[in-house]
Specification:
heterodimer; A: 169 residues; mainly alpha; 8 helices; 55% helix; B: 478 residues; alpha/beta; 7-stranded mixed sheet
């Protein structure tokens, strides 16, 4: 039996590999079952044995933090549609006489008129990148020699439009 | 005619396109911005679109001071005018003297009734004088003029085809607005307790019937409301989804018995509307059934306003028969399912509505239909209320048959912005594409008693969505 204390700083230590080691040491096959057995035994030992508890705590402190699990789609993360429908954007004026045309290119100047400079960024953020690029084309036409820093980044395209539409307004 | 609004002396005349712009979105400011000659021409254009043959006589008979500006004839060949019109494009209200002079002019000019159009309205004493001479003179102030323009603009039918006039046999008179006001007052909520919800969209295939049905079932099943669904569509899909109770002793698998009467019978004068209402296989849900005949009962013309108001009145005051007592009872909700298109039935249903819901499918062609639907809502609002009230009964749009995708998401964002800019709500919950809807439809048509909400222990996505939509409806509807 090895006497050298095991360390959590050893490279690529995982719960699974540690469980396999224990299973080997105890000459058992089921690593998952031995994991649970170790946890149950360790729970009792931590309650009664402060030195053991200190060792567990020391090993915990040496381990790198776990990655934050990404929330599953459909749980707390909003879909694009939900983001659009529940956005708190409030029109600052009504515009009469404009046809509802979903095929028309995005018009950031119209968004400015409807939502104001203070909400323009949020209004643009509702749209996918492909649609935002249409809006950027209109702004580039009005501001020759300018363009977004990156046309493949939604944030960059929005920044560009906000700068030349809202900030110049 | 004194022009009290400062103007160039000789501006270029307004064009037909200018007039169409005013027709589409009438405002007093736009009319006051016209030169007074153009304003007279515009008013003549409005009466022409209403079906009158219009004669401009401003400089023929009374070139100085107040006089007759237009003669209105019911048809081109008529020998005598139906009415005479004086037009004032002023900011200030007309005073008693103006009205008295016009009454005198009308008496001198053959004692034919007249309309006095004044963008600035009328002083109180002028109103009293007109009331005393009501058989001779009707006043049209700025707001009434806007209503007339909005209603005529969305109702006009003129021109000829194959040598026959397509115009109404009788013109649309401004008097219909008074009848509209009387209808609104007579059927006001309160004291009427029943709420009328109209589900409408000129575009077909956007889930109007599915929405009307499932909103009705949600209200009855989950909110314990008494719901009467009225099928105004000759396609009769709603009727088929709510078949009659099985006859005693009938086989469980036997198809439901078809209806033998329908709303068409009421429109032909063969039965009162309330007598056509029958129970369905769902508790607290009744239906006034439709039949294919409704397709052939397309009504247009001046009688249109009369019939729209008559049907709207009948719909708003529709009752059920309590099965225990046999007495008429008012439902909590009447839901009107309308056909696609700018039809008599959709128009009457919009007039009857306390609340209007527009199911919308966020794709290119669907949005064009949405535009036309909103115009129709404005048109029918003008028959019974001021033009600035046109949004007041509109609950908003609810997206239906939703399936996410790049185009769909972009269209949804555009729709949200477009509706927001027009002051119209987009419901926060959308109805997803869900095969269970078809499962429920097939079952309901075959006579099953399981609605979309009862197909399984846990309601599917569309059922949950309709539940949320109804919660929004109840929150928005006062």
């Amino acid at each position: 039996m090895p006497t050298k204390p095991r360390t959590a700083a050893a490279p690529a230590v995982t719960a699974a590999s540690a469980a396999r080691s224990i299973a080997f040491l105890l000459s058992v096959d089921d690593a998952n079952r031995v994991s649970l057995a170790v946890l149950l035994a360790a729970t009792d030992e931590i309650e009664q044995n402060s030195r053991f508890a200190a060792r567990v705590r020391a090993a915990y402190d040496l381990l790198p933090p776990s990655k934050t699990p990404r929330p599953a789609r459909g749980s707390s993360r909003k879909t694009d549609a939900e983001k659009i429908l529940t956005s708190s954007l409030t029109p600052i004026r009504h515009v009469e006489g404009r046809e509802i045309n979903l095929a028309a290119p995005l018009d950031p100047y119209f968004l400015l008129e409807v939502y104001g400079a203070h909400q323009l960024r949020d209004a643009l953020d509702l749209f996918p990148l492909a649609k935002l690029k249409e809006g950027a084309e209109a702004v580039m036409e009005r501001n020759p020699g300018t363009k977004p820093t990156s046309k493949s980044s939604k944030a960059a395209v929005i920044d560009y439009m906000v700068r030349y539409v809202a900030d110049k307004a | 005619m004194a022009a009290t609004v400062p103007q160039d002396n000789n501006p270029p005349p307004a064009t037909q396109e200018d007039f169409e712009q005013i027709f589409r979105y009438p405002t007093l400011d736009k009319m006051l911005a016209l030169h007074w000659r153009d304003f007279e021409r515009f008013i003549a254009h409005v009466f022409t679109c209403a079906g009158y043959h219009v004669e401009d006589v401003a400089r023929d008979f009374f070139p100085e001071g107040p006089g007759v500006d237009l003669n209105l004839y019911a048809s081109r060949g008529a020998s005598k005018p139906t009415a005479r019109v004086e037009i004032k494009r002023w900011r200030q209200p007309l005073q008693l003297d103006h009205v008295r002079q016009f009454i005198g002019t009308l008496r001198l000019a053959g004692d034919i009734p007249g309309y006095m159009v004044s963008t600035g309205g009328f002083a109180d004493r002028a109103l009293i004088a007109a009331e005393m001479a009501s058989s001779h003179l009707k006043l049209i102030d700025g707001e009434r003029l806007l209503r007339y323009i909005a209603y005529v603009g969305g109702s006009r039918l003129n021109g000829t085809f194959a040598g026959k006039s397509v115009a109404p046999a009788q013109p649309l008179s401004p008097a219909w607005l008074e009848r509209g006001d009387a209808f609104a007052q007579r059927t006001a909520r309160p004291p009427r307790a029943t709420r009328v919800l109209t589900v409408a969209n000129i575009k077909g295939g956007v889930a109007k019937t599915t929405s009307a049905l499932n909103i009705g079932l949600t209200l009855s099943d989950l909110h314990h409301q008494r719901v009467l669904l009225v099928d105004l569509d000759g396609q009769a899909s709603l009727t088929r989804s709510l078949p009659r109770e099985a006859l005693p002793g009938a086989s469980r698998t036997a198809p439901p018995e078809p209806d033998t009467v329908s709303v068409a019978d009421y429109l032909r004068g063969e039965a009162p509307l309330a007598s056509l209402v029958r129970p369905t296989r769902f508790p607290n849900v009744w239906v006034a059934p439709a039949a294919q005949d409704l397709y052939r009962l397309q009504i247009a013309g001046a009688d249109r306003a009369h019939l729209e108001l008559t049907l709207a009145d009948a719909l708003r005051t529709l009752t059920l028969t309590d099965s225990a007592s046999g007495q008429p009872v008012a439902p909590d909700w009447i839901i009107l399912d309308t056909p696609a298109g700018d039809t008599f039935f959709a128009r009457a249903a919009l007039t009857a509505a306390d609340h209007i819901l527009i199911p919308a499918y966020p794709e290119t062609y669907g949005a064009f239909g949405l535009d036309a639907t909103l115009q129709l809502v404005r048109t029918m609002n003008a028959l019974t209320a001021n033009t600035d009230q046109w949004r007041s009964r509109l609950l908003g749009c609810v997206v239906t048959r939703w399936k996410s995708g790049t185009n769909a998401n972009a269209n949804l964002a555009t729709l949200k912005t477009a509706l927001g800019s027009a002051g119209i709500r987009l419901f926060q919950h959308l109805i997803p594409l869900d095969e269970r809807v078809e499962t429920a439809n097939r079952g309901e048509v075959a006579g099953a008693r399981r609605s979309l909400f009862r197909l399984s222990a846990k309601p599917g996505p569309a059922a949950q969505a309709y539940d949320e939509v109804v919660k929004e409806i109840l929150a928005y509807a006062h």
